[in-house]
Amino acid sequence: MTNNTEISNSDRREFFRVTDHVFIDFSELSDDEKSRLVPIIKNPVHNDDNAIQQRLSSLQTNLNRLIDQINHTDRDIARALRLIDEKVSILAQAVHQQENSTTDREFVETNLSGGGMAFLSANTFAAKATIEIRVEFQSSGSVIHAIANVVGCDKIASAPEDKPYLLRLVFSHMSEIDRNTLVKHTLSRQALELRMQKESSLI
User: Among candidates 19, 8, 28, which has minimal Cα distance to 149?
Assistant: First the structure.
């Protein structure tokens, strides 16, 4: 498995699109800046924070699998475990947000997939411009780091005055680890949306 993914058009068509609220930090890159950044994207430095996130993700997967098994024999206990897990997640999110409350990141609503994203921007960017972007998922605190190309940046009449442009990006460079994190997140969001739609239809 390689550490970097240059995403093809055929791959992008297979990704689900979801609506989510995320923290983002992005800026336009010059050709020289892109050249310097690509090797970093290919071989990301796995610091202690990343290692902890991977361990937590693995624990969460194992916990979800165990709760599903328990659900077959005792639904009440399984539901109680899910509620406890949700409570812990909410507390962790609150602590994480407090620790990062002084940063300049934007909290935006985005249309997100494994191949790209779209969100409202205060500034306009030329088509094919190169963008460095970091995205933090509110639900898990996981952060992905990628290089993206501008597909379009159109002024939207109905958009807020402070963010009138719909910026559409397609990811061009991303580590395999970050891509897996992104795809897992979109699948999780899609499952949540489908579950909410199902519950709404039963009301």
Answer: 28
